[in-house]
């Protein structure tokens, strides 16, 4: 009897191992969510995804490109309709007429103007149907966690396609791929996933994009032509972070500011935005994952840098340190964006049990003194960022949406599980892109959590921040991208 049992166990073990190997070969992987939870799922390799994109683009190239009609007037009807995209060959630059409705240069930075996550350009429609909005278009794209920036009717992002990091330009109204610029680079990370993390920046007809392993490219936004390139890690003598370079480049006057995190005044490095020559550098801090911000506090233009151990401000002109606020977290992960609460107050929040705090700045000669106003553990932005609306802060406390009073830090409400997704503010409402790829519309009210609608839009883990320009919402994740017409 014992021999029979052992034989049965042995056969079962062999079958389990063979089945496990087979599932692995077909793409079964352990997938981690933002909180470290594990689930099994099928994951397509970056090479297979690149093949899928190539076939998709080639099939559409064979189709006759549709004419681009003048932008229709905003429709009062609740439904959204649009033609399917017809992208072009990635190597081909297409010159399409662009409707005037999308020719603005508004959402040109990570999380929009001021990097605040607040869309103010136009009012958006908030009468989303219960069954969800119909996308203008939806199509595959490469991996990574960058979001879109938008200018002149074109949306720009950076993706992993096989063994290449690809900066791509798309037509906002059709999704048509206008150009791509590829670089042989792969950033691999088992916990978070492969691909570039940093959102590109548009400025004055140029795209500045940082890859996961530190390559900085300056490209002509109209054609994708490389104007100059540098590897910020090599230049700064720095090593890459565990989860890769994630900070979006910041244009300050005539320089592009990046965060390689090197020692010997190489933590913050600026390149001349036209020539690519090094312009200046500062600090010795280890880097983290938040993007630098250009702000005005106390009447002084300054660059906020959230390093692995502190929030620090550099004078935008002299690059001298104006003030600092120590903030140490587990693993050195400071990934959320600081939030301005006024012309002398700043909010900061991180995950891994750290919580949040508000500080007040007072000008003291050539520097500022810093006073902590309050601290709370009721808002922990792990790698999302909060938004401010009418004296209240809204954001994801780990994976649950919460609202706190900006003056006191008191919790107003907490409700609604959205995973480790992203939150933005528009027309008094929160547009939430959940970790599982759903879109939700939540009223920005301190009274209670009011979710108006929620529906699935993307397949797979979604950590990418949504973007809105000219009333068009653009979203993406590791596998797909889509657009929605939110104009009133």
Overview of the structural elements:
This protein has 488 residues and is mainly β. The chain has a domain of 32 residues. Helix content is 9%, strand content 39%. The chain contains 3 helices and 35 strands. The strands form 9 sheets. It has a 5-stranded mixed sheet with strand order 3-29-30-31-32, with no helix packed on it. A 4-stranded antiparallel sheet has the order 4-35-34-33. It has a 4-stranded antiparallel sheet with strand order 5-6-7-8, with helices on one face. About 8% of the residues have low confidence.
Features:
4-stranded antiparallel β-sheet, mainly beta, 488 residues, 35 strands, globular
Rg: 23 Å
Distance between the ends? 75 Å
Morphology: globular
In round numbers, the mean pLDDT is 89
Task: Report the strand count.
Answer: 35
DSSP helical segment count: 3
Estimate what percentage of residues fall within beta strands: 35-45%
Q: What strand line-up does the widest sheet have? A: 3-29-30-31-32
Q: Helical content, roughly?
A: under 10%
Structural class estimated from helices and strands: mainly beta
Poorly predicted runs of 5 or more residues: 15-28, 67-92
How many strands, which pairing sense, and closed or not: the largest β-sheet?
5 strands, mixed
